[in-house]
Each structure stands twice: as C-alpha cells, then as structure tokens.
Design brief:
With 619 residues, the protein is α/β, with parallel strands linked by helices. The chain contains 24 helices and 20 strands. The strands form five sheets. A six-stranded mixed β-sheet has the order 19-18-15-16-17-20, with helices on both faces. It has a five-stranded mixed β-sheet with strand order 3-9-8-4-5, with helices on both faces. The model has no long low-confidence stretch (mean pLDDT 91).
Length: 619
Amino acid sequence: MKLERKKNLLQAKLLAVKLADEEKALHGNLPRPLQKVLQDKNLLVWKALLEKYEYDDMAVVPFMCEGVKLVGKHDAPACYPHMLKPATLVQGDLESSSVWRRKAVVSRVHQSDPAHVDHLETTALEELQLGFLEGPFSTEAEVTSHSGRSDWCVVRRFVLVQGAEMKLRPIDDCLEAQLNNAYTVSSYLKLQDIDYVTGLALRIADSLASGTTGPGIEQWLGKCLDLSKAYKQMAIHPSHRHLAVIFYHDHSGAPKFYVANSLMFGASAAVYSFNRVSRSLWFLLNKMLVIPCGVFYDDFPMFQPESLAADGDEAASQLLDLLGWKHAKTGSKAAPFQQRFNVLGCTLDLSEIVGGTLTLENKPGRVDRLVALLQQTRKDGMLTKHQGQIVHGLMRYACGFFSGKYLHQVCAEVMALSTSTSRKSVKDVTSFCDYAIQMLQAACPRRFHSAFEKRPVLIFTDGCWEPELAGIGAILVDMATGQKMVCSGVVPDALVRKWKQLVGDHIICQIELYVMVLIRWQFRSWLLNRRSIWWVDNDAARYCTIKGLSPSPSMRFLVREFYALDSESPTYSWIERVPSSSNLSDGPSRHDCSEALQILGVDHVTPFEHPDELVGKLL
C-alpha cells in the first residue's frame, strides 16, 4: 500500500513537471483576479488526474479554470440527484435595481458588537493580503471607478457566532442582496454527513470482525482533514465580480467596500460549485491514494489501519500540496490519526472497532452549551427566532440515523415555537425548555456493532373510536427470527377522559398515536438497535411521528414520548402508510383477532400493558 501511494504520488509529481510550461501559460492568460486566487493551483495536473482515474463529473473543471458564475444556472451533474428550483430574478433585474438597493442597504446601519467589527476588519485585511479581495473603497464612486460600471451590487458582511467554541465567522448576506434569488438550483446536494461516515466506519468494523486474517486486520484510526478558507480558494467568474461587492460599517459607522475575487460564504452558487470541486478531491483521496474517506463541504473524515496512518496522513497532505489546496497542518484541525476523533460535530470512538463495535456521541461541550442556553431561555420566558436558530443549529448534528432520533422532535418543536407568528406564552416556552433539557441530559453515547440485525421488525398499528370503545390493536412480525405477535386492548379510561376534555369527542388521532407510543414502551427490548418499519393508516398520527410535531398539545405530548425512548432504547424506524382495508391490525383494534391469528399462524393474543409511568406522563 505504501509503495502504491508512493508510485501514484511520484507519477503525479512527474506530471506536474511535464505540464509546468502549460500550467504557467494557463495562469498567465487568466484575468488578474483569477490569477490572485488560483496562483498556487496546479489546475492541469488536477484535471489530468481526474481524467486518468475516470472521474464522473469532469464538468467541474471550468469552475476552477474560469471561475464560478454567481447567478443563472449551472449544469446538472449526474453524480447528484436532479432537482429544479428556478430563480425568481435574472441578472438584469439585479443590475437595473442595483443603485436603489445599494442606497437601501448601505444607509441602514446595524448595531454591531465592537469585537465583531474588529473581526471583520482583521478578516478583510487578511483576505486582501491573500488576493481574495480588492479594496478597500470608501465611497460608491470609488467602486464604480474600479469596476468600470455603475450597476454593481452590494453584499453586506456580518459576523455569526458559531458552535460551542463561540467561533466568529464572517457571512456575506447574499440572500439580503437578492443574489441567491437569481440562481437556479439544478441538483440536490446529497452530502456525506455523519450517517455516511458512521456507515463507512461500520463497513470497516464488519470486515475486521468477520474473522478473516491478513493485511489491515488490526486497530484502525480516524481523523478529519480540513481545508483552509475553503470557499476562498475558488474564484468568481470575471463577468460576475460586479455582483459581489462586499461591505460593512466600520467603528465610525462609515461603509467600507471590497470587490470579491473569490467565492463568498453565503452565496448559493458557491455552495453548489464548491461541493462539486471538494468531491473531486475526495475521489482522488479514495481512488489514487486508497484512503477510505468521506467529504462534507471542506471536511474529509479519513480512516486508516494503525500501521498505515502516518503514511496515509502524509500522502493526503502531499497530494493537496501538489494540487495547491491549502489545508490545516497545525493546531486542533490538524490532529493526527487517533482512535477517538471529532467529526462533523460528533465524536467517533474506534477503540473497539476490531471487535466490530463503534461509539458515537456529541462533541464535548455541545450538550453543556445547549443546556445553558435553554436554562437562560426558560429564565427569560421567551424564545426568539434567533435563539431558536442557534439551538436548532447545535442540535441538528446530533439527530440522524446513527446518532438517533431522540432529539428529532426537539429540533422540530424549537423551530416551530421560535418562528410562530402567534404569541408564545411563558408556559409554552417553559414546558419546551424543561422537555428539551431533560432530553439533552438523557443523551448517552450510541454504541453500534456490525453484527446488529439488519432485517426489520414489521409493525402494523390501528385504533378505533366507537361509542364507549377506544380500541387498539397491533401486529408485530420479526423478519429475522420469524416471531409474530397479535396485540389487542383498549385505551385506559383516564386518558380517554383527558383527551375528551382537551379536544372533544373526536379523539381517533390520539388513539392511533397512543398505540404507537405503547408499542415503543412495551416492546423496547425487542426493538433495541433494530430496524423497524411501521404501517399506519391514520395520516395525522403518521405525519406527527414523521415530522415530530403537532399543533395539538395532546398529540405533541404523545410524540414527545414516542421519541423520548430513543435516548435509552434506540430503534431505527421508518413510518409508512397502509390503507385501512390492508391493515391487518384493524381487526384486533375492534377485538376481532380471528383473521390476524389465522393469517399469521399465531395461537394467542398478547394483551397491551399500560405502565403507570407512561400514563402518568400523558396525563
């Protein structure tokens, strides 16, 4: 393996020598702004390597060699699913209205934290030195003179406080500038998130635990390779630079203007073009250097056997250096391969991977910061849209297939509560904060084993509401063991009375949802770490559990309990619709189990249990 990497890197270096004159000529013919951004890039070597290893998206090359157009439509690559989201403006609209939009945006002075202004100044100076910006300009007339046209568009830059580390990140507000409204999305970015990375690690764990012998059957390590100022390493197309004039107000309140040479963090076009380029680097790391890895924007989670870790780290760095991509080589973002490493907001522990086991948990400090935010929100008695976005942003990384769905409902509820136009009562905010804090504090590391059963448990549920009868029924079929179960029973009278007080006589949705919650409680041991497919014929109950949200308080509490169990007894569930006429649990919900027993070959009915703890929570 070391020899293969050394050979491939040597061939790439020889290719760079061979193409040196052509590379120099290419850069010499580039417009000056592109030269500044791309001066260290070996574009022809990159292109030749992609061709040699048969990359599937060669249309990505013009993004680097010509620059990225910020408005209009990019091609739709075959490597991503197609999706059309048409622009609502065209470039001419932006240009024709540019003068008045500039007056509106620049004249509105935002109250900024002095530390944020300092950060904007420092960042601008650094980007000037690196060739990412031109300026500064103090007046609109100076920008017009520099660009040679008066229909240039202004984009406000502001600071966003990000993550548990309270990192300051400059954002260029291309949404406010309406730049993103003029960009047509042509593909769906199917990104390699934490689920992809965990799935890849489980694939390695499966091979290690299979009992085979040979090279690589040893402890594996992981690390996250990080590109530096990733978006800034790509240039804006020269014909669109007048659409990217960045500005902010300095300490005196006076505007400062800069013309962008490189992509702006905030432009839709930047997201789609950069991800296609970073995917090409991911391809070379896998194909050329044989390093199993994923890519998520500018992060490359990589895995290596312990004996190859140092070599793989060095090889990856050499390849990026050869292609001219700046990446972290020192500090926390340049940690070596380790058994336990931070990746995409989580911590992945590979210490037991040889035995087929992985552990995934929240990144250190994330839960503590969230709890502190929610405690302050509870004390204030109000949840603003901005606070909701912060909480949601911190939680969403811990809410996936492998991370678990115990925070899925919390994420849905915080966004609904913070963006609601109706007045939020102190009681609503307090109730949510108490519940969210409880769920966060219940969070525990998730352990996975490659031998976990992949065949699902099929679950059919149904409820019926007839005069004086709140019947419930369920069918469970284990596709792995062949175990089958028919369940039948009624909803406790205390819950029926409670729901009727809240919503009147129409409580069928509550009944249908209750039986789903009851299944999660009663059969939690059976469903532990299993895949489960639920078949439900009531759309209200189905949508509530899929979305994790309901405007009805009684339904919301039921959904909370459905997801709360995932923190201690996770199951990987998919909820699907079944027509009532095809729902085998319809009979058991009406106390007629004969057909279900006959079809399944089961000789007895299992009664539902109604634990006092669950009923008490719902009351």
